[in-house]
Amino acid sequence: QVQLVQSGAEVKKPGASVKVSCKASGYTFTGQFMHWVRQAPGQGLEWVGWINPNSGHTNYAQRFQGRVTMSRDTSISTAYMELTNLRPDDTALYYCARGVGATGGNLDFWGQGTLVTVSS
Amino acid sequence: DIQMTQSPSSLSASVGDRVTITCRTSQSITIYLNWYQQKPGKAPKLLIYAASSLQSGVPSRFSGSGSGTDFTLTISSLQPEDFATYYCQQSYSTPQTFGQGTKVEIK
Question: In the predicted model, is pLDDT for residue B106 greater than 90?
Answer without folding.
Answer: no
